[in-house]
């Protein structure tokens, strides 16, 4: 259970036993039968403080009820061409499993453009993948291996990362805030692959701002890091951009066959996810036709430390802009290194 004491777990469980029935129902979708592991996650996120972990959990459950998160897997993004466009610009996929049975999620952080739909669609897509992971992928892995599996690994490919990524900071802050406050401690380790200079420069100044438990989770690999990853993941479960070390293809959204490129809608994971959501929508609302439209989710305000991190990244990118002789704005967005507010 890490640094979390058994007494803290018992105290938090006693507090959660007292919540109203609506909160209990949505809490079941959160813990999926792994109550202790879930309590530990929230306690870790609040440094073992029971009162703060309880407050965080209540805020999370109320957020789920207010935004109908329990029903989000019955809200398909249609038509399929729109969903394909989102998959083509929000590069994420399940490449396989570690030797311990943890799902391995690959993220094309450098080449994701988030420019094919509104922010609401991308947030909806991200939460749907979170919920599908927690309600379908993780329980199936736990059943297969006969032990609790409640977390995953993530491999972030930084191929193609450019200064223009500044235009995506607002959306990425929204997504990371959703994860921090409502899906805490779901990732065991973040592996950073193919990191260019721009990442190294930002990492140097951001790393000291992170909490120690977060810093311990992040491992910056040497190049693609294939040898290091092969120590914990079989080759068949490595993302395509790791397998192709030296090919120069990186995490290109157009590289490889659909079954190999885990970012593609043609990959089994995404077809299974897409069809699961469509089936759930028909079960929940079998009479009414499925309507096109994004599922709006209210995003909690980011914690103060995230404002500081975001402002630091913006400032560092701004310095790199000037050092490269580029203009003072990216996509018309002015940056001030002395401004720590985020819109």
Describe the model.
- Helix 1 (6-16) packs parallel to helix 4 (50-66).
- This protein has a 5-stranded mixed β-sheet. It has a two-stranded antiparallel sheet with strand order 6-7.
- It folds into 2 domains: 6-66, Helicase, Ruva Protein, domain 3 (Orthogonal Bundle), CATH 1.10.8; 72-279, CRAL-TRIO lipid binding domain (Phosphatidylinositol Transfer Protein Sec14p).
- With 343 residues, it is α/β, with parallel strands linked by helices.
- 47% of the residues lie in helices and 9% in strands.
- It has 13 helices and 7 strands.
- The two termini are 38 Å apart.
- The chain is globular.
- It has helices at residues 6-16, 21-31, 35-45, 50-66, 80-89, 119-145, 169-182, 197-206, 212-217, 226-229, 240-243, 268-284, 304-323, and strands spanning 92-97, 103-107, 152-157, 187-193, 218-220, 329-330, 333-334.
């Amino acid at each position: 259970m890490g640094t979390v004491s058994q007494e803290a777990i018992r105290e938090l469980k006693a507090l959660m036993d007292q919540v109203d029935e609506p909160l209990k129902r949505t809490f079941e979708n959160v813990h999926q039968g792994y109550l202790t592991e879930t309590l530990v996650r929230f306690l870790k996120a609040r440094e073992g403080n029971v009162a703060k972990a309880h407050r965080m959990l209540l805020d999370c459950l109320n957020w789920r009820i207010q935004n109908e998160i329990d029903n989000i897997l019955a809200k398909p993004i249609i038509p399929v061409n729109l969903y394909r466009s989102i998959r083509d610009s929000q590069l994420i996929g399940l490449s396989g499993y570690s030797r311990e049975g943890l799902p391995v999620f690959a993220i094309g952080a450098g080449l994701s453009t988030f420019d094919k739909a509104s922010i609401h669609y991308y947030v909806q897509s991200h939460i749907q993948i979170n919920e599908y992971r927690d309600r379908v992928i993780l329980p199936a892995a736990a059943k297969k291996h006969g032990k609790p599996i409640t977390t995953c690994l993530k491999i972030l490919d930084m191929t193609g990362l450019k200064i223009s990524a500044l235009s995506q900071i607002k959306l990425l802050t929204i997504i990371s805030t959703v994860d921090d406050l409502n899906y805490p401690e779901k990732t065991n380790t973040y592996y950073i692959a193919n990191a260019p200079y721009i990442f190294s420069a930002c990492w140097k100044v951001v790393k000291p701002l992170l909490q120690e438990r977060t810093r311990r989770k992040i491992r910056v690999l040497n190049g693609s890091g294939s040898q290091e990853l092969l120590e914990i993941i079989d080759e068949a479960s490595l993302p395509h951009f790791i397998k192709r070390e030296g090919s120069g293809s990186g995490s290109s959204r157009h590289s490889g066959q659909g079954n190999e490129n885990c970012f593609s809608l043609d990959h089994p994971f995404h077809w299974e996810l897409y069809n699961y959501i469509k089936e759930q929508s028909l079960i929940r609302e079998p009479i009414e036709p499925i309507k096109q439209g994004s599922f709006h989710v209210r995003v909690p305000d980011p914690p103060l430390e995230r404002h500081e991190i975001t402002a630091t990244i913006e400032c560092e990118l701004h310095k790199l802009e000037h050092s490269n002789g580029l203009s003072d704005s990216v996509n018309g967005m002015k940056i001030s290194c002395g401004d720590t507010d985020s819109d």
